[in-house]
Amino acid sequence: MTIQTTTTLNNGVEMPMLGLGVYAPSQQNEVQQAVEWALEAGCRLIDTASIYGNEREVAAAIAASGIPRREVFITTKVWNTDMGYEATFRAFDQSLAKLGTDYADLYLIHWPIREKRLDTWRALEKLYADERVRAIGVSNYYVPHLEELFTVANITPAVNQFELSPYCHPAETMAYCRQKGIQIEGYAPLVRGLKADDPRLQTIARQHGKSTFQVLVRWSLQHGAVTIPKSVKRDRIRDNFDVFDFELTPENMAEMNTWHDNTRIADDPMTLL
């Protein structure tokens, strides 16, 4: 596995396994530079969203890099207040305009808002049928949300993006996605540094001569999850991508799989049933 390693989605589209998350609400001015550094390091997956307010910065970074658009996999998302059938089309158009592109590689429903999620999925299917997006999916969907979606969906989501770390490890949802052929994508793998002092994590990091953050990224990748660590610091971005010269042992993985304590950065999707 390398930073160029991809996974094949259920519709045949190739998606990079490791990318950069750009949720940085207080650091808008730094996002363009962070994306440029990530692209320079070999990253080809950039994960943004309309609510992040930095789609223009992502576009500027890709333009500045000189890398052809087709070589960069761009994910964006429809926000809660923009959902609904017609409203989703307007939100998508606005995102594309800010991203300076005529298509998205992956478009996600950001959260499963009860009143609007089914109509929003219908809109995503239309965008996909019209070839305006290469793949569609969902974010923050757990099993009940997916089961409801399958009562109306004509297309199986290509991706389900949700918070994923050893401390927030929704194993049932992961198993369900694998069974349905939905690619798992994990955000907040570093738990915003909240677990950097966990002695169990530090022990495994020392064993491999790596940082605790690198071990967390590696754990997610070894679960087969597309992984999008976030940072706006150059050294940290490089470190987060420097995870291909070691492998966690089966014993490491088994131990880390027992650490779930429901530590979350984002809301619990089960509050949105």
UniProtKB/TrEMBL annotation:
<dbReference type="InterPro" id="IPR018170">
    <property type="entry name" value="Aldo/ket_reductase_CS"/>
</dbReference>
<dbReference type="GO" id="GO:0016616">
    <property type="term" value="F:oxidoreductase activity, acting on the CH-OH group of donors, NAD or NADP as acceptor"/>
</dbReference>
<keyword id="KW-0560">Oxidoreductase</keyword>
<keyword id="KW-0521">NADP</keyword>
<dbReference type="InterPro" id="IPR020471">
    <property type="entry name" value="AKR"/>
</dbReference>
<feature type="active site" description="Proton donor">
    <location>
        <position position="52"/>
    </location>
</feature>
<feature type="domain" description="NADP-dependent oxidoreductase">
    <location>
        <begin position="23"/>
        <end position="257"/>
    </location>
</feature>
<dbReference type="InterPro" id="IPR023210">
    <property type="entry name" value="NADP_OxRdtase_dom"/>
</dbReference>
<protein>
    <submittedName>
        <fullName>Aldo/keto reductase</fullName>
    </submittedName>
</protein>
<dbReference type="InterPro" id="IPR036812">
    <property type="entry name" value="NAD(P)_OxRdtase_dom_sf"/>
</dbReference>
<feature type="site" description="Lowers pKa of active site Tyr">
    <location>
        <position position="77"/>
    </location>
</feature>
<dbReference type="Pfam" id="PF00248">
    <property type="entry name" value="Aldo_ket_red"/>
</dbReference>
<feature type="binding site">
    <location>
        <position position="110"/>
    </location>
    <ligand>
        <name>substrate</name>
    </ligand>
</feature>
<comment type="similarity">
    <text>Belongs to the aldo/keto reductase family.</text>
</comment>
